[in-house]
LIM and SH3 domain protein 1
Amino acid sequence: MNPPCGRCKKPVYPTEKINCLDKYWHKGCFSCEVCKMALSMTNYKGFDKKPYCSMHYPKTSFTIVTDTPENLRLKQQSMLNSQALYKEDFEKSKGKGFSVVVDTPEMQRVKKTQDQISNIKYHEEFEKSKIRSDAPPPENRQDYEEQPPNPERFRQPAGQVHPAAVAPPSGAKRYQAMYSYTAAEADEVSLLEGDVILDVEPIDEGWVFGCNQRTGQRGMLPANYVRPV
């Protein structure tokens, strides 16, 4: 009795019989399962007892091994072990928050250094905020004495009498210098921050007359450089 063909299921006679992949085939039926290209015993590739050409041969995946019952059991056991370890670590870390890493000696030193830097910056900003918004320009401060004063800044027009030439009446007030000032004229008084000024009297807009207690020099000085004490 002639066996059936592996593809068309019709009887296969001995003259056209191909015995391959545990089946019998007609020569015309022995072709690729995908593209139907005719195959021979030298160029076919078998998969699941079916012939394929090299182009359409199924690519084996790694899940064929891992899906075996034994590997599935091992995979499930590994997942259970991972969950058990996770719960154990979670229970140990309760009450510690997220300080497991930052509590190391090195991280504690870094944190302390950062806190010190933050405190220094805070004090610097606080000192800067104490500077008066109406402070005089820096060219007349003690820190900027290397800059030459501008004599034209306080010079009176020609032909006018300087109002500081006449001393004010007695009974004047005591003032203290808030900033350093370098005299630009002969009738002006130089100041250092903290100098006490005696007999201060206003004589013009922005100017007063007084005596520097430290140097004994009498003359004019800018009103916004001193304050009453």
Notes: The two ends are 133 Å apart (CA to CA). The longest helix spans residues 69-93. Helices lie at 63-66, 69-93, 105-129. The chain has three helices and nine strands.
